[in-house]
Amino acid sequence: MPQRPAIVLVHGFWGGAAHWANVIKQLHKRGYHDLHAVENPLTSLADDAERTRKMVKQIHGPVILVGHSYGGAVITEMGDLPNVKGLVYVAAFAPDAGESPGGISQAKPPEAFPNIAPDSDGYLWIKQDKFHESFCQDLSEGDALVMAVTQKAPLASTFGDNVTVPAWKNKPVWYQISTHDRMINPENQEMMSARMNPKRTIHLAASHASLASHPGEIADLIDEAASETGY
Description:
single chain; 231 residues; Rossmann fold; 6-stranded parallel beta sheet; two-stranded antiparallel ribbon
């Protein structure tokens, strides 16, 4: 039987590796036991790409990279490693060369943009009392509270970091669009997905936190990517 690939999960802004908890459980049930969730510093695209690159280089064998939100920019920037066999985008940024997440968002701002505020140290936060309605309106109040309190703020400058050579131009791609996303405009998701010519695009009536609210469907998409890349 061919070797199953390792799955490397890359979180985005305002969250950490634990945002993948429900997807991890789903993948494990399906027989994926080589699972990794990188914890990125969210200090710059270069820093986050290098942290993820180092993790992937420790894996001997094929890898499927999965990026949520800004994590999509990370896998776009570093996903050219030879053992990376596919890229899965979960309500994620997929910038082209010379594009940044901030530039894409400014063109078509998301609904919850006014609920993001900087602190005196240059980090951007989602206002705690607005987190549920902004990031994860399809989760329970309790789960949203935990996400709000434990959110991991990015340096504001990271929004403006441009991708250099997009890995999606040379790797097979799968994309999930959240049609009720208030953090990345669904129109931007449609645009980014279409120009990558993905193997498959799925639409979920989900918030930005589709990885938490629809883990079964996200695991299905990852499983499809792993299967179709020959493993």
